Amino acid sequence: RGIPRKHGTRWMEPGCQSCTCQEGQVLCEAVSCSVPCSHPLPAPAGGCCPTCTGCLHEGVARAEGDVFSPSDGNCTVCVCLAGNISCLSPECSPGSCPSPSLADCCSCTPEKCNFRGRTYAHGARFSLDGDDCTTCVCQGGEVECSFTPCPMLDCPQHQRHLGPGQCCSTCRDPPAPAGCFLDDNGVEFPVGQIWSPGDPCELCICQADGSVSCQRTDCVETCPYPIRIPGQCCPDCSAGCTYMGRIFSNNETFPSALDPCLSCICLVR
């Protein structure tokens, strides 16, 4: 092939042919591979012989030490070790399943459950007698029971209530207010109570929902000299007259403060 070779030289030709030069002649023969494993990987690029560093199983390359389950293996576990595949299958005894975990792996009948005088099939769910808050399930001859989960409540303990036939507590409605409590002076007024908060022209009432409603009184003066009584909202025009800081009764006469020759009289109209 246009390349000179010395006597005794050995080289590889395409197709895994091992060739040697013997006294002017080229002798070639196919490479013989000794594969000491059951599931070798194909030869790497540029190589001729398969390798046992890894495994080829069902067309899938597995790394050394890889643990896997075959596609049709019923709970079978396999491992790749030095090009060999070793598989382990669960031991299934005839009749009832040895454990609930093997019920899906073995061709067996899961064991039934005898609970409080009743027989339940494997996988059956039921509640305790008279207690719908507890759910039980039969698993391979054993009964497992759990309580119904309850939601978290955001009300204090004294407002929680467990009704008949209920599994979880609920929050009661807060009690209706018995009156109105004023934080500024610490006085509590019963519902319907009317009071003045300090201004005689303002009246407040305690509502049924515990709120306070206040309203001011607008005074209409019907006389030019009304009497202002302490603690009373509106001036009084029926009791007499106020003149220059003095109070005079109805029909009472008195001298004028501006002219001593003038006489005044208080007339209530």
TrEMBL record:
Gene3D superfamilies: 6.20.200.20, Complement Module, domain 1 (2.10.70.10). PANTHER family: VON WILLEBRAND FACTOR C AND EGF DOMAIN-CONTAINING PROTEIN (PTHR47333:SF1). Its main location: secreted. Keywords: Glycoprotein, Secreted, Signal. Residues 1-53, 53-114, 111-172, 178-238 form the VWFC domain. It comes from the Eukaryota. The keyword Signal applies. It is found in: Secreted. The gene is Vwce_0. This is VWCE protein. InterPro entries: vWF_C/EGF_Fibrillin, VWF_dom. One of its GO terms (cellular component) is extracellular region. GO terms for biological process: cellular response to virus. Pfam families: VWC, VWC2L_2nd. The keyword Signal applies.
